[in-house]
Amino acid sequence: MEFFDRFKKKEPRALSAPPAAKPQPLGPALVEIARIITNGDDAVLRDAAACAEDPRGWFEAHQERYEERCIDSPDDLDLVLWLGLADLLEEHGWVCERDWKDELEDFLYFLGHLKGAQSLGLPMEPAWFREDGDIPLWCGILADKWSAQGIQVAAIDIDSDSYVLFPATAGQLSQLRQLADAVGHRIDGIE
Which residues are 155's β-sheet partners? Predict the structure, then answer.
């Protein structure tokens, strides 16, 4: 049934409006976005640079991942780069992609095991949450609980009914919003 879930109507997203200006090329911004999210993780930066320098080669090397997203051609290089960024960040443990109808237990497990959450020592007490909530509600609770540290849950918008989540400081999120907007994409806080 999971295959058919891709064709269901998407739920509205809690992200900012898309940019109005003509976007800049994504390649140069991709490595900078990866650097900010990972605090300069060398392995991630090497992969991000490889993806940015040769998106067609990256597509060929990671074709199975793209096929899982129903992308069977590297013709849309911008899409190849943006999805490649999300996938490589997930592969290295910096982001987690969660379905819009995720269960609380899974949401807390995957978000809590991200490298950024671990390095920041972010608390995530199950008692804070309602089981029948959803990702925006749960992220709002975390933003409130983490507000003293200036951290909230952010998302890379990949134009799907899933959320690519990671913890971010206000400063990081501001930089990421600007970079993503400049290249015609969105990264924003979820609340």
Answer: 165, 188
CB environment 62-78: b (16+ within 10 A), e (fewer):
beebbeeeebeebeebe
What residues make up the domain containing 71?
Answer: 22-189
pLDDT in tens, 75-132: 999 999 999 999 999 999 999 999 999 999 999 999 999 999 999 999 999 999 999 9
Residue 35 lies in a domain: yes
Within 10 Å of residue 119's Cβ, how many Cβ atoms?
10
The count of structural domains within the chain is 1
Q: How far apart are CA 94 and CA 191, in angstroms?
A: 20
Is position 62 within any domain?
Answer: yes
Q: How far apart are CA 34 and CA 32, in angstroms?
A: 5
Residues 6+ apart with CB under 8 A from 15: 155, 157, 186, 188, 190
What is the value of pTM for the model shown?
Answer: 0.85
In-domain check, residue 36? yes
